[in-house]
Amino acid sequence: MPNAVRNGVPIIGLLFLVLAFYKLVKGDPWVVWAILSFLFGGFSVFGRKRDRRTDV
Fold it and tell me: Which pTM was predicted?
Protein backbone atom coordinates (compact mmCIF):
# COMPACT_ATOMS: atom_id res chain seq x y z
CA MET A 1 0.00 0.00 0.00
CA PRO A 2 2.85 2.51 0.53
CA ASN A 3 3.60 2.44 -3.21
CA ALA A 4 0.00 3.09 -4.26
CA VAL A 5 0.62 6.74 -5.05
CA ARG A 6 3.87 6.03 -6.83
CA ASN A 7 2.33 3.33 -9.04
CA GLY A 8 -0.67 5.40 -10.08
CA VAL A 9 -1.01 7.53 -13.17
CA PRO A 10 -0.69 11.30 -12.56
CA ILE A 11 -4.02 12.26 -14.10
CA ILE A 12 -3.89 15.96 -13.18
CA GLY A 13 -0.36 16.26 -14.55
CA LEU A 14 -1.42 14.58 -17.78
CA LEU A 15 -4.36 16.95 -18.14
CA PHE A 16 -2.04 19.94 -17.76
CA LEU A 17 0.37 18.38 -20.27
CA VAL A 18 -2.39 17.93 -22.84
CA LEU A 19 -3.56 21.49 -22.23
CA ALA A 20 0.01 22.79 -22.69
CA PHE A 21 0.31 20.91 -25.98
CA TYR A 22 -3.08 22.28 -27.12
CA LYS A 23 -2.04 25.83 -26.25
CA LEU A 24 1.29 25.36 -28.05
CA VAL A 25 -0.41 24.21 -31.24
CA LYS A 26 -2.99 26.99 -31.01
CA GLY A 27 -0.28 29.62 -30.56
CA ASP A 28 -1.28 30.75 -27.09
CA PRO A 29 1.05 30.98 -24.07
CA TRP A 30 1.72 27.41 -22.96
CA VAL A 31 4.71 27.58 -20.59
CA VAL A 32 2.62 27.98 -17.43
CA TRP A 33 0.66 24.82 -18.26
CA ALA A 34 3.88 22.91 -18.95
CA ILE A 35 5.31 24.00 -15.58
CA LEU A 36 2.11 22.95 -13.80
CA SER A 37 2.26 19.62 -15.62
CA PHE A 38 5.82 19.13 -14.41
CA LEU A 39 4.88 19.97 -10.84
CA PHE A 40 1.96 17.53 -10.86
CA GLY A 41 3.98 14.72 -12.43
CA GLY A 42 2.75 14.85 -16.01
CA PHE A 43 6.21 14.29 -17.48
CA SER A 44 6.75 11.14 -15.40
CA VAL A 45 4.80 9.08 -17.94
CA PHE A 46 7.75 9.35 -20.34
CA GLY A 47 10.14 7.79 -17.82
CA ARG A 48 7.89 4.96 -16.64
CA LYS A 49 9.20 1.44 -16.93
CA ARG A 50 7.23 -0.88 -19.13
CA ASP A 51 7.72 -3.75 -16.68
CA ARG A 52 4.77 -3.91 -14.24
CA ARG A 53 6.21 -6.20 -11.55
CA THR A 54 4.93 -5.59 -8.02
CA ASP A 55 7.30 -5.27 -5.08
CA VAL A 56 5.80 -7.39 -2.32
Answer: 0.69
